[in-house]
Fold these 4 entries.
Entry 1:
Amino acid sequence: MSRRDIILQAEGLSIGYGSKSQAAMIAEELSFKLEKGQLTCLLGPNGVGKSTLIKTILGQIAPLKGSIKMNGKPLLNIGYKELSKSIAVVLTEKVRLGNLTVRDLVALGRTPHTNWLGSLSKQDQLIIDRAIRLTHISYIQDKVLSELSDGQLQKAMIARALAQDGDLLILDEPTAHLDLINRFEVMQLLRNIAHEEEKAILLVTHDLDIAIDTADEFWLMQCGLPLVIGTPEDLIVNGQINLLLPSERLSFDKMTGKVLTSSDVNYPLMEGGDYLIFWMKLFLRKIHSTKVNSISKISIIDDPFSIYIEKQENHFRFETFNDFKSFLKD
Ligand SMILES: Nc1ncnc2c1ncn2[C@@H]1O[C@H](COP(=O)(O)OP(=O)(O)OP(=O)(O)O)[C@@H](O)[C@H]1O
């Protein structure tokens, strides 16, 4: 096998709730594998079954059909203790452990490895130190959890999962409730952990743009269909990324990596740098003015920023999009 080791694998898996005889099937024919050193993002619309799949992988609900193997062994044959040494989880629910310090929380990650008294060995302390260092939270290790921001708490939760020292990390929407910078930081952190610590990481996210920027692999989940799996770049280039956007009003722009609303605007002839034309098109789509139809040409230059308009033999110049907007609205 290649450098990458398969940690978890499933073939023809059906997932859902209830018993096999009276089952509410959520998804079927799911086949996938998770490999060391890879960051995988599971994407799909609300209610499609992402959390159900995560719960099945964690052994919290039994598959309706098929089985999942962890390191070659059926998941159902792996005991709770062994499983918690191999899989670390960060879920969306906020922890209510306000009096614990960050270091106490990270130390909880060692629970599956400690004796029944829960005493930490020197080796455990070193692993906790390392998890704190890798997640860049040394400066807050003595703070109590109730005093943390959402971003700091999320990093502490990731450190706890890292201290567990399993091969597989599973996270449900780790960037929910975070601001833009923290969303990037947390995803970059997870990418580094996957690559440098050789962990397999699976996370659920709705943050398509950040996922494109960081993931090695996407799993696209859609109602009643098998998972579509590939590198983000392949799925973008072959158009399968649009499976995430079943509405005709939305489409994925391959050039910019952004989701755009489709438009019925007939753009005039445009001249200028690619990025200027991109923002001009977005502007014209939003302004939705009938006056755009009588513009024959738009030229945009970036230094000094100017918009030149040719309209029925007349020429106009604007220094900002805002001035152009006023003109279109008059
Ligand atoms: N305990 C349960 N028993 C029966 N059905 C459930 C249970 N939990 C969830 N479901 C149903 O399973 C389907 C998939 O839900 P799930 O939470 O897995 O979706 P999701 O893709 O994670 O959604 P979201 O993006 O909104 O978190 C939904 O129709 C939901 O109502």
Note: The chain has a mean pLDDT of 90.
Entry 2:
Amino acid sequence: MNAVEVIHVSKKIGDKEILNNINMILEHGKIYGFFGRNGSGKTMLFRAVCGLIKPTSGEIKINGKTLHRDISFPESVGVLIESPGFWSHYTGFENLKVLASIKQQISAEDIKKSIERVGLDPEDQRTFKKYSLGMKQRLAIAQAIMEKPDLLVLDEPTNALDEEGVELVREILLEEKERGATILIASHNKDDIEILADEKFQIHEGKLIPFKDQRKDIQ
Ligand SMILES: Nc1ncnc2c1ncn2[C@@H]1O[C@H](COP(=O)(O)OP(=O)(O)OP(=O)(O)O)[C@@H](O)[C@H]1O
């Protein structure tokens, strides 16, 4: 069974066709990279895959189950789309603990491991509001991976990170893939996509086009 199937998906808001007949089949244990100019529809596609918006037409299946019919959200998903709602007066650990308790039982040990994995200190007593942009981004990645999800949907996971942070996130994503996760990543950093992705897509004005074929035309 495929990890994700997007079948004739379109999304219209007002008169604007934001996603235009998107079709793609994603297999388990692979990394899929998405390029596209600002406003091309990457985030909207990711939102649709996570069940956060309903397509105007078409359907999305996760592990064979249709979103908004069989399930509301993918059953095992880690998401980083825009800035997650962290609480400014909690520490990094406290933030993930609250999110973990909302989702399902994740042990304190697993939360600590995922915080360490992104290069942060789970014992750090600083509250989130004192975190730098890069630290916030790292915590957001820890949040996405802490459940060891089958599906990881990451919109610009490296954009606020220094070189070392970018390297670390790439390593983490390759490990997640080894574990069997299916990973969708949108990045303006072409190296991220080149290094990580097993398959690359380009989104242009809401349409999905094979990355290689269109490269010269679009960039
Ligand atoms: N709630 C909304 N209502 C109306 N239009 C929207 C809404 N959300 C997004 N759009 C429009 O949909 C289009 C695609 O937006 P999207 O955020 O998916 O782009 P993107 O490819 O992720 O861009 P970026 O690289 O800047 O993150 C844009 O033209 C945007 O203005």
Note: The chain has seven helices and ten strands.
Entry 3:
Amino acid sequence: MAKINEDLLKERKKCSFNTAELTHLLDGGKDKTLERHSREHFFLDDPELRSKIPLEYLSHKEKYEEAVRKSCILFRKVQELQEAGKGGIENFREILGGQLGSAILKDGNPLTLHYVMFIPTITGQGDFEQQAEWMHKAWTCSIIGTYAQTELGHGTFIRGLETTATYDPKTEEFVLNSPTLTSYKWWPGGLGHSANFAIVVAQLYTQGKCHGIHPFIVQLRDEETHMPMKGIKIGEIGCKLGMNSTNNGYLGFENYRIPRTNLLMKNNKDGTYVKSPSSKLTYGTMIFVRVVLVQDCASYMKKAVTIATRYSAVRHQSEMKPNCPEPQIIDYVTQQYKLFPYIAMSFAFQYSASWLWDIYNNVTGELESGQLENLPELHALACCLKAVGTADCAAGVETLRLACGGHGYMTASNLPSTYGLATAMCTYEGENTVLLLQTARYLIKIWQNKKNIQNLPTVRYLDNALFNNRSYEKSVSWILSALQQVAAAKIDLANKHINDRVRQGKAYEDAWNETSIELVAAADAHCRTFLLDIFNLTVNNFQSISPELKAVLTDLLELYAVHTAIRMTGDLLRFTNTIGKDVEALQLWLEELLAKIRPNAIGIVDSFDIRDEVLGSALGAYDGNVYERLFAEAQKSPLNHEPVNKSFGLYLKPFLKNNL
Ligand SMILES: CCCCC/C=C\C/C=C\C/C=C\C/C=C\C/C=C\CCCCC(=O)SCCNC(=O)CCNC(=O)[C@H](O)C(C)(C)COP(=O)(O)OP(=O)(O)OC[C@H]1O[C@@H](n2cnc3c(N)ncnc32)[C@H](O)[C@@H]1OP(=O)(O)O
Ligand SMILES: Cc1cc2nc3c(=O)[nH]c(=O)nc-3n(C[C@H](O)[C@H](O)[C@H](O)COP(=O)(O)OP(=O)(O)OC[C@H]3O[C@@H](n4cnc5c(N)ncnc54)[C@H](O)[C@@H]3O)c2cc1C
């Protein structure tokens, strides 16, 4: 084992709590930690899953080929675990998103959509016979699928998709067509050259009538040769900001025929076209992915904040006092302000993600028995948590990269590619503004009709929050109550402005659009009250943890609360009876909390227990040997493999001669 950096050794001695206790708490128990370790060992210690050359130095094509190689091994290994009875959702969570997946495939996995959307859509939308026909092939990976919904012309407005599936009663087939350039499918992961099947979302036509969008199972490529099927035009969409191994593709159809039975029929039981009880049931896979993405936000944030916090303990810079040694940069309070709120935020997102996952499972259970009443609340919550979680995560990763100064800009820090993964989440699975407007739509409806509100756990606070008006106290409960009042006031005001505009003669839709900046802000505030509420409830409910750990979690909870409140200072002053002096008190409380967390900062990020291979960072490794690792990474540059590059003879030398 490498020698541990002296600063980190000192930091670890300062820690006031048992880091293993926090690790177990975060994992859900010691058994779960051991399970995770064994899973990490199974994947990360497999030499086949390592790359010989860092990805950054490969061409676009080579990156893809290496990603396919690794994805196949990953999937084979997941199947081995399933067969050995060691299966479970955690395996998928870890290798598809989260930490293991992004450690092994830093720039994305071209086969992810198979498990994340193809299989869930067959399960959620297929009838019994269809599941019997397709699930075995999909589970055993005899076929690899993707989810082809977005088109060149439409991603958000899916009712506007243009791909057509027209029923031909003579042959009992659907005929798929891409009538325009804008109707080409565009974006689906793995569609370019990896998948041989896809769920294709298309407008269903029977007897000249359009019945709206429906999902179909479509074969794209020959199962033996992988050549595109006749009538299928397919390829990759090209280079992106990040995720360059995910093989996002395009797809067009020319009179491409598929059997009638490939229309997913869970909601059309007798095989003839019957309108489903809610057209939104077709959107179920999107809810599922939004729910799991919130967990990924916590994972990426933990990873980035571990890297930046360890680096900040090792890095020394400037003089705080004349003639004193250069301090660790973690001792600058501005630096603490860049780091510690994101440590706290990781907890907030983990706890809310876990609540959301439970609510999701309850509601999907109800949907199976035809109960739809709780779907709108789930949809509204999943939309805002996905939007706020991914936005905070991307902004957090960028702040943490900046906190690492120049070295944070190196790919060897692993912060740039983590940002690439995080910022993509803000767009895919529903663009964030659009999702916040979905939440706002729900909140406005609730505001206009509060009859049933006490049965709706995520919004029942709105019943009386408008009049909270509590005077300032230094407590989380005061901040929560103030945030709830802000959310209620924002919803109330947006509702009033919509109504005013309608009264002035505007169409409701125009009034909505003119009020939409306020609506987005209302949804954002509502989401932040939920995040704080759940963090607070979770910490308060921990019964059997040590007082030392409880104290640390309380510090983090308070920091999250105060940080949120300070970010919303204008709203507090505007919508609650907070006054200038209270804001000053909040600021002092924030500074007090940063100082309290400072001695435990390294202990807390150590408790995240993220292996060096997962961090993938010269700046964040457990041993803190930052400079040695940066130097070693530089040696991997192909330019350093020869003393003189051929460009010298070709260009530089003649250029230098010409300038003589
Ligand atoms: C087999 C084992 C599997 C295990 C896997 C386990 C774990 C996986 C773990 C980890 C993986 C983690 C992460 C994954 C990692 C990497 C991911 C890599 C790649 C990501 C792939 C990304 C894929 C995509 O992007 S797919 C495309 C997604 N597209 C969108 O999201 C489009 C967004 N647009 C929409 O959703 C809609 O069009 C809209 C904006 C909502 C508008 O729709 P519209 O019909 O116009 O609706 P309208 O506004 O009129 O509202 C009508 C009404 O419906 C309600 N509504 C809307 N949507 C829903 C919904 N989804 N559910 C319920 N209800 C909905 C809406 O509120 C309105 O209601 P009302 O009239 O007001 O009552
Ligand atoms: C990395 C990545 C992977 C993806 N993978 C897949 C995949 O596997 N399968 C798939 O089908 N798709 C996939 N997508 C597509 C993705 O789901 C869409 O890009 C996303 O839903 C956003 O839609 P859009 O591109 O049409 O954006 P647009 O809707 O065109 O957004 C552009 C701007 O318009 C605004 N806007 C649009 N509508 C409204 C509105 N109603 N009100 C207010 N503002 C509005 C948005 O806020 C945004 O600012 C992927 C995308 C990315 C980036």
Note: The mean pLDDT is 96.
Entry 4:
Amino acid sequence: MRAGIIYARRVRLAGPQQGDRVETVYDHDRLNALEAVSAAQKIAFAPILFQAVWCLRETGLLAALERHDRDGASLETLVDDSGLTPYAVGVLLDMGLSGGVLFLKSARYRLTRVGHYLLNDPMTRTNMDFTQHTCYEAMRHLLDAIRSGKPSGLQVFGDWPTIYPALGELPDEARESWFEFDHFYSDQAFSEALAKIFHYRPAHIYDVGGNTGKWALRCARHDPDVRVTLLDLPQQLALAQDNIEREGLAGRIDGWPVDILKAEQLPGDADLWWMSQFLDCFSEDEIVHILKLIGRSMRPDARLAIMELFWDRQRFEAAAFSLNATSLYFTCLANGNSRFYHSKVMLKCLRLAGFHVEDEYDDLGKGHTLLICRKLADA
Ligand SMILES: C[S@@+](CC[C@H](N)C(=O)[O-])C[C@H]1O[C@@H](n2cnc3c(N)ncnc32)[C@H](O)[C@@H]1O
């Protein structure tokens, strides 16, 4: 198990304090005054920079710059390549320079490494698409969401209490970006989690919050004998059903429609309960409530497997940054009261609900943690 530190580095202490201490990027003020005032301007204009980079990507200017990577491209070349006016190309390129996306040498523009990632890195593209299509307009309502505890930003799409029953009905780009974002992170972790989960030889898995059935399908393909039951809202199960039938696995994967916050009892046949990126959809009190409900329903010998993203368990600062930003999507759009938690919060909820952690794995996929839990005998 790793201590919960982000991007830690060991600092050698000189003088009378001999030895090492561990420093993380979040435990001190990192910038001098000039760096700080510069960073503050990046924040003050962040939405404008974001939209400018979006335009650089969508107009094909980033791609054109990549094509001309060897010698760089002049303004005229980029005007010709993009079909935009010199004015339009000029304002975007200037913002690209100030945003560190491009550099200009001998009147020729080239992509910086940041520009290359913005254009080609699947994770960056997925995050940008999600920010633009799902979150951007809604985030204007964050202050209201923070004050009210309600997902005030969701009103830009319609009138729902939370985003979950609305997922199938969001506008195309918002819906596709949401699923792409969700699956991008969980898919990679699924591959590594599969071996760990099947080490326990489950015969029947409950996939709580099973969404489109991706994990259930992976399990059913992995083990020809395993059965999987999806527990999710009825609207989600309808989406999952199509995928399961298309794969011809309806004989071993079924669904149990439930609003887990309203249920008083859950089915109790599974020997393994699986929850991936599920508990982050709920507040701390709701998590304890859900865990107690599962504890009451599950067989005493069953295991509970929780796969989550914890911001304190990340190896890279960019990952912690992304998770803390995504928490505000939960605040403003998803339900107003949930988030990606610090791992100690989840461990506290598990203790309060009468579970202990039997095994723990960090760094699955892009930074998921898998907790294998058992019910305490006296719970
Ligand atoms: C973020 S998705 C997780 C998807 C999937 N497990 C994964 O790892 O990619 C959360 C899932 O929880 C479901 N969900 C949210 N609130 C729920 C509730 N009150 N009862 C049952 N399911 C719920 C949603 O419908 C959605 O499928």
Note: Residues 164, 182, 186, 209-211, 232-233, 236, 258-261, 276-278, 281 surround S-adenosylmethionine (CB under 6 Å).
